[in-house]
Design goal:
Elements lengths: L2 H17 L3 H13 L7 H21 L11 H17 L4 H4 L3 H15 L3 H14 L4 H15 L5 H20 L4 H15 L20 H12 L39 H26 L24 H27 L16 E3 L5 E2 L1 H4 L4 H10 L16 H12 L2 E5 L6 H8 L4 E5 H36 L20
Length: 504
């Protein structure tokens, strides 16, 4: 049987089984895909197989009504996400035009839909934007993005920013309906459009995109534009646009209700921790920016006169590489510090030495992880997204945990920078991935300079998303407190921002 005939048969079998809600046949299709020798397929065919597997898992999820399940651990949707990500990895930088069909658009949109379902709306919006950048009239991506913007708005502090999100949500719903979304979605989107029209007269409402000075020097202007274009600003507005030159890092924790501290002058612990997380993030972000700017520059003077032996493997001994390593370690450390804030705010009372981004969610880890009672019945959508993001990372004790096919690479890079040593090679002259496969990497881990750059930016994006989900999760909890609890007498505690002129 030729590959094209096999793929067509799989597509028909899965579509038929999905229409009939036939879980048995969907599982058979997944087993067939898993048993195939991937080395016989092209990259596009490999991506197609993963896309089919993801569709089969989605079919199982809907046939068994799991799509209405709010359980935090859902192996079916996690498998769906894993295969969709694997499909995008297989396609690499290929465009829709090069592939010759809309496969990449469908994979990207489906992945965004799945991530949004489990609370990862920041990453979902970027994926929908990628889809519509290739096909500006891809109506399902436009419509699904509109709904994510609506729910994102409820977690945003500031009425003008909320209005900006809601107006863009309304415009996107209108465009999706105008472009004729699929029949099953049209009525749903029309209802949302009508609901938004009851909230305001959007023709008269003109919320403004926030602006921030883009710097006095050319270097600062370039830096701030890079932050926006890379979607690395701690500001929800960066999820609406990359078309402005500068945005301020305005993300903060919302107002929270706490017991009065003994020393009323102290900044409450959650705010103090969040301050530190933000400062470490922006410092790591700038190190990455500097490293990328120096990547193709002449040798830095600090690297001159340093005696090194040539290992004959085209290794990069440069300051910019070490800046990336430092930024990578610092960014990764923020994730465990997020766990400290979760421990404090949700009053989990876990010993500090046992708190990390992987374990904070569980009351028991071995032999099988058991979700903490504080989270197991929670309807906190962004907190669920933060939990899901923690499962993007590889942990040696739980190798089946990650949702990301590249999770182990991030783990190995971090582990070798911190405890062993990372070898960074010129990617055009040395095949680091092949070296890892052939010879293992117990002591050293070889990567290309391009892999280190990509991984560092990817990690920054994950940390940014984590901080947004954390702030939104606290906003959710505070709204729930306000609506369901007797709060008694509440005294406001003024919290003022530090003026840039007086930062010490």
């Amino acid at each position: 049987m030729s590959m094209s005939v096999l793929l067509n048969k799989l597509a028909l079998d899965i579509d038929t089984a999905m229409d009939a809600h036939n879980v048995h046949n969907l599982k058979d299709a997944i087993e067939t895909i898993t048993s195939l020798d991937r080395s016989l397929f092209t990259q596009v065919e490999k991506a197609t197989l993963d896309f089919f597997a993801a569709n089969a898992f989605s079919g199982i999820r809907h046939a068994t009504n799991q799509h209405n399940d709010w359980a935090w651990i859902q192996p079916t949707i996690e498998s769906e996400i894993y295969h969709l990500r694997s499909a995008l990895l297989a396609l690499g930088s290929l465009t829709t035009l090069e592939i010759g069909n809309d496969l990449k658009l469908r994979i990207t949109t489906n992945l965004a839909n799945a991530l949004n379902h489990i609370g990862r709306f920041v990453e979902a919006i970027e994926l929908w934007d990628q889809a519509t950048s290739e096909h500006k009239e891809f109506s399902m991506a436009i419509g699904n993005r509109a709904l994510a913007l609506f729910w994102y708005a409820r977690y945003i502090e500031g009425s003008e920013m909320q209005a900006l999100f809601l107006k863009q949500s309304r415009a996107a719903f209108a465009k999706a309906v105008e472009l004729h979304v699929e029949d099953h979605a049209n009525e749903h989107m029309m209802r949302w459009l009508q609901h938004l029209d009851t909230l305001a007269n959007w023709n008269e409402m003109t919320p403004r995109m926030p602006t921030f000075k883009n710097g006095r020097s050319k270097a600062e202007k370039k830096y701030r534009k890079w932050c926006v274009r890379s979607r690395l600003v701690l500001n929800p507005a960066n999820d609406l646009t990359e078309a402005v030159d500068s945005l301020q890092d305005t993300l903060v924790l919302p107002p929270i209700t706490i017991l009065a501290p003994e020393n009323g002058a102290d900044l409450p612990a959650p705010y103090a921790i969040f301050n530190q997380l933000k400062q470490e993030f922006v410092a790591s972000r700038f190190l990455v920016f500097e490293a990328l700017g120096e990547r193709h520059a002449p040798l830095h003077f600090s690297d001159r006169g340093v005696t090194l032996y040539d290992a004959l493997d085209y290794r990069c001994y440069r300051l910019w590489v070490e800046k990336l390593k430092m930024a990578f370690l610092s960014s990764h450390a923020i994730l465990d510090k997020i766990a400290y804030l979760i421990n404090d705010y949700w009053k989990l009372q876990l010993p500090v030495r046992s708190v990390n981004f992987n374990s904070i969610w569980f009351s028991e880890i071995r032999p099988n992880p058991k979700l903490s009672a504080a989270f197991s019945s929670s309807d906190n959508w962004p907190l669920r997204g933060l939990f899901s993001l923690s499962r993007d990372f590889y942990y040696k004790s739980r190798p089946d945990l990650p949702l990301d096919p590249e999770a182990k690479i991030l783990h190995e890079i971090r582990n070798h920078i911190a405890h062993k040593y990372l070898r960074v090679h010129d990617g055009t002259l040395y095949y680091a991935e092949g070296e890892r496969t052939r010879n293992g990497h117990e002591i050293s881990f070889p990567v290309s300079e391009a892999e280190l750059v990509t991984s560092s930016v990817k990690l920054l994006k994950l940390v940014r998303s984590s901080l947004i989900y954390l702030s939104a999760a606290v906003a959710h909890e505070e709204a729930k407190k306000a609506s369901t609890q007797e709060r008694g007498i509440v005294f406001p505690m003024p919290v003022t921002a530090v003026d840039d002129r007086y930062r010490i």
